[in-house]
Amino acid sequence: MDPPEIRKPSVRIVTNGSNALPNRNNTGTAKRKKVRLQPGHSALDWSHKVVTDGAKGLLITGLDTLVQDSEFQRLNAGTVMNQVAHRIPTYKIRPLMAINSKILKNHQDYLSKHDFWAVYKGKVYCLSYYLDFHPGGIEIIIDHATRDPPDIRGAFDRYHRWVSAEKLLETCLVGKYVED
C-alpha cells in the first residue's frame, strides 16, 4: 500500500501596492484593516518596550513643555507638580494629573508622531511610541483622537472588545481627562 499523498497548502500572496492585508472577517462584525508592521513592531516587541522603557517612564513625550504650561500648573498644584518635578513616571503619579482639552490639543502632533496624546475612557495616554505598533495603522487612532470629544474608546471597543487597553497602554498613562 502506498503512503497517502501529502499536499502542501497553497499560499497566495496578493500585492496591490498597498500596505494593507486582505480582510478575512466574514462574521458581520466591524471590518478591520490591518497593515504590515515594520520589523521590530509586533505585539511582543511592544510588550518588551513597555517592560523596559515604559517602566522607566520613557514612553511619555511632551513632559518638558507640560510642566511650564500655566494651564497645567493651574489644574495640578502641590503633590502632582512635586511628583512631576521629581520625574516620577506619569503612570505612577497619584492623584492622576489633570489634563483638559486645551492641554490635550498641544499634544496632538500626529503629523510627526513625536508628541501624540489621546483619551480612552476618561484617561489621557501618550500614544507617540504606540502608533507604529498598532496593527490597524495609525489613521484610525488619529481619526478618533482628534474628534470632539477626543476619545478613541468608540474605535477601540468596536474592533478590540477582548483587549484590555488599560493594560496594553498602562505605562503610557499621562493622567485623567477633565472638562474645561
Instruction: Label the overall shape.
Output: globular
Mean pLDDT: 83
- CATH class placement: Alpha Beta
Q: pLDDT under 50 segments (min length 5)?
A: 6-25
The H-level CATH homologous superfamily, spelled out, is Cytochrome b5-like heme/steroid binding domain
CATH fold name: Flavocytochrome B2, Chain A, domain 1
User: What Rg, in angstroms, do the CA atoms define?
Assistant: 20 Å
Strand content: 5-15%
Number of strands: 7
In sequence order, what are the helices and strands, one letter per element? Answer: EEHHHHEHEEEHHHE
Identify the CATH architecture. Roll
Largest sheet report: 5 strands, mixed
How many angstroms does the end-to-end distance come to?
80 Å
Query: What count of structural domains?
Result: 1
Provide the helix percentage. 25-40%
Region (Disordered): 16-35
Biased composition (Polar residues): 16-29
Family: Belongs to the cytochrome b5 family.
Protein name: Cytochrome b5 heme-binding domain-containing protein
